[in-house]
């Protein structure tokens, strides 16, 4: 178990965004987090990554209690996060964007290792380009590359395929498969083809609580899930 | 390599130019070099880290008063580093509180701190000389045998301090930490999620900025022999901002050229008109309209992308 959350709770005023959620991640798995809009998915990964303070409950990462750690400390422990709305350094070069991630992880030869990280996602040819002028799909890819360049133990991807073309989605899937099992992947995703294709396990959130959790086939057959999604 | 050569060339040019400078400009350029150190410090916080402070006069004055007061009873060689440390310590203390805020709130909080500092200087008149300040005796301005009241040693001392500050600034912005400073300016939330502590980064940057400001204030006191409350007033917080904007925020050479240009703009215009502030205002308007990135920033944009 690389990550264990127990009784995780976060309310915003009267809204129970996340309520008493228990959640486990097994080392090396690809785990998808799905649920209708407003189910609390982004809030939930915000609690795991430290962007949103925990109200109640505990989070253990690789055995350590990280419930009260600030976000940047969790990143250093190996929890990387990519934003739902692409967040890069638009006015810096693609190279400098990635160098900031490589430098954080610690590099003997920053230039060479940054280049290697660029090559991994096929952006080496655009190293000198200002990141804000990249096409949307490439910006998305750059952000994922920044997450990967941290060499995280857990990579949290918030709707990574949103707005990507089909060919780009295929490349993305290959990229995610290439990082396991060294890296555990937690994925918020709306594209069910991607989820069914990639995920080893799926957790369904609804109204801030876990509705179901299990392998794809089991989730697909789950009546409660179908009701939540189809409103039956 | 190219960048290092360029910055060394500027230091070399400033060393060479002293043989042809008439006495009046000899003093002025020495003054500009010290003020440029102040501007460089401001630029570390504002230009590179994105911290728009309106209270840097407090750090400049901290260096100036610490050195000016210490030199009554201690040699200048000891008083100078004391002033440098005073600037850094003041920035650290202000930063610990003010960096809990950001943006407009940070501007206001730093402004309030600086005003409080200014009023404190006035309040303790018996020690600080109030708004009249005090003059340093010539004997007090002997720095390791150099008489800083004389033109030659003063110019060379200013150049030495400026040169070290410039090269250290260059090294800083090209270092890993320099890259993180820029990252905070460009996207704080992203930087946090890359594992960089925003508060710590900004606090270190502000403290370095205070070190530069304190150094400039301390050197100014020894070189020109006067310590006064006007250096702690609001205009000395605004001036470095203007110098940096004019020269180019986030460039290493910008602060020097901004300070040089502004100094001579005021100097020349005040010889022909009383409305020298109007000339400065018009110059700033032209700048904002036609070269919002300042002199060096515009040069960098127009081709010299390697400019640090």
Automatic annotation (TrEMBL), chain A:
Name of one Pfam family that matches: ABC_tran
One cellular component term from this protein's GO annotations in UniProt: plasma membrane
Coiled coil (UniProt feature): none
Location of the ABC transporter domain: 3-232
Keywords: ATP-binding, Nucleotide-binding, Transport
GO molecular function: ATP binding; ATP hydrolysis activity
UniProt protein name: ABC transporter ATP-binding protein
Native organism: Cereibacter changlensis JA139
Lineage of origin: Bacteria, Pseudomonadati, Pseudomonadota, Alphaproteobacteria, Rhodobacterales
UniProtKB/TrEMBL annotation, chain B:
Alphabetically ordered keywords of this record: Cell membrane, Membrane, Transmembrane, Transmembrane helix
Membrane protein topology class: Multi-pass membrane protein
Domain of life: Bacteria
Any Gene Ontology CC annotation: plasma membrane
Record has Signal as a keyword: no
Main location: membrane
Pfam families: BPD_transp_2
Spans traversing the lipid bilayer: 77-97, 104-124, 155-182, 203-229, 241-266, 278-299
GO MF, one annotated term: branched-chain amino acid transmembrane transporter activity
Localization in the cell: Cell membrane
Protein name: Branched-chain amino acid ABC transporter permease
Organism: Cereibacter changlensis JA139
């Amino acid at each position: 178990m690389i990550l264990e959350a127990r009784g995780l709770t976060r309310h915003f005023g009267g809204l129970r965004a996340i309520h008493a959620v228990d959640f486990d991640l097994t080392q090396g798995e690809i785990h998808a987090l799905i649920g209708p809009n407003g189910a609390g998915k982004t809030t939930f990964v915000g609690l795991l990554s430290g962007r949103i303070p925990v109200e109640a409950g505990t989070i253990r990462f690789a055995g350590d209690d990280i419930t009260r750690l600030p976000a940047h400390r969790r990143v250093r422990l190996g929890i990387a996060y990519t934003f739902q709305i692409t967040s890069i350094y638009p006015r810096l070069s693609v190279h400098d964007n990635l160098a900031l991630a490589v430098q954080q992880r610690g590099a003997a030869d920053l230039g060479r290792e940054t280049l290697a990280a660029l090559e991994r996602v096929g952006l080496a040819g655009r190293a000198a380009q200002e990141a804000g002028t990249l096409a949307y799909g490439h910006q998305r890819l750059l952000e994922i590359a920044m997450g990967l360049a941290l060499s995280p133990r857990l990579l949290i991807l918030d709707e990574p395929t949103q707005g990507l073309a089909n060919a780009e989605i295929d490349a993305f899937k290959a990229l995610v498969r290439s990082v396991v099992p060294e890296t555990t992947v937690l994925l918020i995703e709306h594209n069910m083809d991607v989820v069914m294709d990639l995920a080893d396990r799926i957790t369904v959130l609804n109204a801030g609580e876990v509705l179901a959790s299990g392998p794809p086939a089991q989730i697909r057959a789950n009546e409660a899930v179908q009701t939540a999604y189809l409103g039956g | 390599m190219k960048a290092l050569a360029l910055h060394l060339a500027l230091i070399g040019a400033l060393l060479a130019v002293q043989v042809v400078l008439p006495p009046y400009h000899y003093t002025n350029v020495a003054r500009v070099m010290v003020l440029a150190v102040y501007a460089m410090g401001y630029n570390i916080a504002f230009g590179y880290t994105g911290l728009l402070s309106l209270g840097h006069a407090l750090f400049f004055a901290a260096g100036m008063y610490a050195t000016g007061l210490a030199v009554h009873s201690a040699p200048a060689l000891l008083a100078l580093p004391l002033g440098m440390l005073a600037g850094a310590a003041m920035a650290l203390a202000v930063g610990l509180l003010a960096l809990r805020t950001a943006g407009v709130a940070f501007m206001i909080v730093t402004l309030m701190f600086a005003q409080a500092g200014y009023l404190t200087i006035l309040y303790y008149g018996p020690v600080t000389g109030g708004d009249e300040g005090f003059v340093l005796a010539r004997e007090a301005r002997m720095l390791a045998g150099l008489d800083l009241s004389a033109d030659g040693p003063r110019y060379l001392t200013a150049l030495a301090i400026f040169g070290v500050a410039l090269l250290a600034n260059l090294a800083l912005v090209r270092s890993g930490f320099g890259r993180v400073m820029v990252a905070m300016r460009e996207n704080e939330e992203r930087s946090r999620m890359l594992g960089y502590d925003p508060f710590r980064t900004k606090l270190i940057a502000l403290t370095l900025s205070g070190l530069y400001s304190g150094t400039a204030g301390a050197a100014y006191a020894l070189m020109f022999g006067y310590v006064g409350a006007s250096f702690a007033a609001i205009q000395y917080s605004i001036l470095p901002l203007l110098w940096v904007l004019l020269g180019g925020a986030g460039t290493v050479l910008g602060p020097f050229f901004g300070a040089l240009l502004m100094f001579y703009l005021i100097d020349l215009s005040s010889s022909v008109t009383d409305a020298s502030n109007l000339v400065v205002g018009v110059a700033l308007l032209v700048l904002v309209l036609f070269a919002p990135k300042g002199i060096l920033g515009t040069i960098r944009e127009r081709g010299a992308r390697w400019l640090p």
